[in-house]
Amino acid sequence: MSVSQMATSRLHKLVQTLCARRNVNLPVEALGKCLYEPIENGVELYHAHFLLDSQHSEYTSPIAKILFDAKAQLWCFYVPIYREEELVWVPYEKLPTSQTLEVLLAELESDPQACFWD
Questions:
Q1: Between 5-23 and 101-110, two packed helices, what is the crossing angle to 10 degrees?
Q2: Rounded CA gap, 45 and 36, in Å?
Q3: Sign of the dihedral defined by the CA atoms of residues 17, 37, 86, 2, in that order
Q4: 3-state DSSP assignment of residue 8
Q5: Under the phi-then-psi rule, with left for phi > 0, alpha for psi from -120 to 50, and beta for the rest, what region is 33?
Q6: CA 97, CA 116: separation in Å to the nearest integer?
Q7: pLDDT 10s digit of each residue in the chain, 118 long?
Q8: By the number of CB atoms within 10 A of the CB, which of 9, 73, 94, 109 ranks highest?
């Protein structure tokens, strides 16, 4: 069984809300902006970096990936690492899976390990 359209829509809405909360009243020059991109069975989140005098992003950094594992019926949480300049997604060690999206998104938003939003 794959992720349902309803679950995907719910994921997109929750991630959009998370990004909107992070982006409200933040000076983009200092902190950047939270962005996300829908992918098959999940989303990838990015941190957009801006030049001081620009309203357009200079570059983006991958922050996290959330995917639905249809076989296990779990949401999987990944973080990016670079191996020889190649981006590789690895399970987030502290919380690699969850049955509920809210748990993963709360971890992402609170960033207790200071690895997402620095």
A1: 20
A2: 4
A3: positive
A4: helix
A5: beta
A6: 17
A7: 455 778 888 999 999 999 888 888 666 555 578 889 999 999 999 988 766 555 666 678 899 999 998 888 899 999 999 998 899 999 999 999 999 999 999 999 998 888 887 6
A8: 109
